[in-house]
Amino acid sequence: MDNISFHHENSASRWKFVYNRRLAPERELGKSALECQELVDMISEAGLMKTVWGLGNCYEKLVKEFLVNIDVINQYLGRSIEEVADLEASENEICKTLTGNLVKKWPRKDKLSSTKLTAKYALLNKIAVVNWVPTTHSSDVATGLSKFIYAIGTRTKFDFGYYIFDQTIQHAKSLAVKMPIAFPTILCGIILNQHLGIRVNIDVPCKRESPLSLDYRLLEGTHVSDIATLSVKKPTATLTRKQMIADLKDVSKALGEKKFKVDLVIQALELEEETVAVETEVGQSQDNSDDDNAADDIGDDMQGDDTDGSPDI
Q1: What is the mean pLDDT of the chain?
Q2: Where in the chain are the domains?
Q3: Where is the composition biased (Low complexity) (predicted)?
Q4: Does the pTM of the predicted model rise above 0.90?
């Protein structure tokens, strides 16, 4: 290994594809989520706390050049490196558990609507689509994602290290550009643990989004209550334009392919926000200019008084 590149020589031809993929940087849990002890206990027991809390820096180039083995991932997460049997639960059993028996058979369309999930699995799903199985289609739950949150929610033994390894292998083999790279911070942590001096000057930490917080909408409505949480406050009736933009972006992600109209509203609000900021700045400049003109007028009047024959003081 050196400070320039450490992907295998035979894989160099894939670099142009991997290089253009976007990373899906993990987001830490917000205060409201961390106060939900049952949620924290489930994630901790699964050995995944390092994927949601105390996240270190994430360096894009290091991630895109990295291929890792299973044992190293499990050791870094503090998990056992012993082999774990495959998850034996059927799709129908998983479906019933995730929905609180609301849906008894896995849908023929191959995806389960997230509105059918119980509160516990709705919360896990919100974390999963950002940190564990990154996707913009958070309104539907695919079979792979369902097994992941089922294992955490039921505290079933599951080889999460292998899952991370498998995701990494898929990226190493695939030529797809639109495939978001999962667990980038974890991969960086493993690399930097083994090779402290591997970073170069051009490596800059990736920008990370704000922490994930509990959404009160996941604890009411169609979501069956099956998790003990502290009271989650509803947003105030009056939202700032910035808060509205942030909320609409979350809604846009949840809508998936139906988000076009929401995106137009977001763009309009952002344009309005910029316009208001410019108008405010111009207004302040105009006020200052008016003050200067008024001062000049007063000075002129005083000079005029001095020329009418009155004595100087």
Answers
A1: 74
A2: 9-231, 235-307
A3: 277-287
A4: no
